[in-house]
Amino acid sequence: MADLLKVEKLTVAPAAAPSRLLVNNVSFSLSPGRTTCIVGESGSGKSLTALSVMGLLPKALQRVSGDIVFQGSSLVGLSNTQMCDVRGKRIGMIFQEPMTSLNPVLTIGFQVGETLSTHLGLSGKALRTKVAALLESVGIPAERANSYPDELSGGQRQRVMIAMSIACEPAMLIADEPTTALDVTVQAQILALLADLKTRMNMGMLFITHDFGVVADIADDVVVMFRGEIVEKGSVGDVLDRPQHPYTRALLDCVPDAEGRKALKPIDYDWLKGASV
Ligand SMILES: Nc1ncnc2c1ncn2[C@@H]1O[C@H](COP(=O)(O)OP(=O)(O)OP(=O)(O)O)[C@@H](O)[C@H]1O
Fold first, then answer.
1. Ligand 1: which of 23, 26, 39, 44 to mutate, most ligand atoms within 8 Å of CB?
2. Which ligand 1 atom lies nearest to the CA of residue 225?
3. pLDDT of residue 209
4. How far is the CA of 45 from the centre of ligand 1 (A)?
5. Of all atoms in ligand 1, which is nearest to the CA of residue 228?
């Protein structure tokens, strides 16, 4: 199957300190209809990798080298205007905290509609019909279109963000810790919704998480990052059942068991430093 996204030898560093590599030689690919999870602890470079794909690296940082090929064309070097067209239309995005992305003084129907009128030029009845259908498709009754974000639960707000992110039927969805702020039951519902949408729309999904429980639920393929580098990648079955790298094994040891107990063994970072990467 042709790759939807190919990240090749991506390296990111602060503009002021180009030798301090925050993302180092990262390569992976994503196919339509599949979910690749990037997993690793805080600071391992997951978000910077995703932000690089979206062309949204903070100003102080730069892509030192590497290519990002989406649907057969490189995204590197696109102007801001060209990249704005790709984002939202061909690549959807959802983040951890929906409240910071939603405007509190506008109804959710208006905000979902704004995405459709901006990117697809819809208006009037066609717009209202599409907004209603989109809200229903993410499990929000269409009559809630007139609600404001603070009248919704955290899970419902994330559903609204998902509706906005899929409004233009993007080929790829990037989700950066979209369920971290939600309680476990709601988290499971949102993961199920994303998995269902991915299959129905044949989207490729790049899913960032630090949680191997989430990986087990949603991933087809897994990329494990440690200190800016990929230490292991493969199918979810291989990585979870037969982890090759000591860092992956250490992370898996920290996943709570069925009774919610954490493994007693802490990660031995000094030993990992010496492990081959
Ligand atoms: N604007 C920035 N300027 C300098 N360093 C940064 C900047 N943003 C991130 N970093 C550093 O880059 C490294 C990778 O950060 P990144 O946000 O990708 O980690 P992460 O794996 O997504 O972690 P988290 O799960 O906490 O978001 C970290 O060491 C972080 O401190």
1. 44
2. 21
3. 95
4. 6
5. 14
Strands 73-74 and 61-70: antiparallel
What pLDDT score was predicted for residue 257? 57
pLDDT at position 73: 95
Reduce the DSSP state of residue 184 to 3 states and report it. Answer: helix
Long-range contacts of range 107-111, CB-CB < 8 Å, 24 or more positions apart? Answer: 107/145, 107/146, 107/147, 107/148, 108/135, 108/140, 108/144, 108/145, 108/147, 108/148, 108/149, 108/152, 108/160, 109/135, 109/145, 109/146, 111/160, 111/164
pLDDT (tens digit per residue) in 88-112: 789 999 988 766 789 999 999 999 9
User: How confident is the model at residue 204, as a pLDDT?
Assistant: 97
Q: Which ligand 1 atom sits nearest the alpha carbon of residue 50?
A: 18
How much is the pLDDT for 267? 53
Question: Does residue 127 contact residue 149 with C-beta atoms inside 8 Å?
Answer: no
Ligand 1 center–CA 112 separation, angstroms:
30
Furthest CA-CA distance within the chain = 63
- What is the spatial order of strands in the sheet that 229-235 belongs to? 91-94, 172-176, 204-209, 35-39, 221-226, 229-235
Residues flanking ligand 1, CB < 6 Å: 14, 22, 40, 42-48, 58, 60-61, 210
Ligand 1 atom nearest to CA at 49: 18
**In which residue ranges of the chain is pLDDT below 70?**
1, 98-99, 256-277
pLDDT number for residue 101 = 82
C-alpha 140 – ligand 1 centre gap (Å): 34
Nearest CA to ligand 1 atom 13: 43
What is the end-to-end Cα distance of the chain in Å, rounded? Answer: 28
Distance from C-alpha of 113 to C-alpha of 190, rounded to nearest angstrom: 22
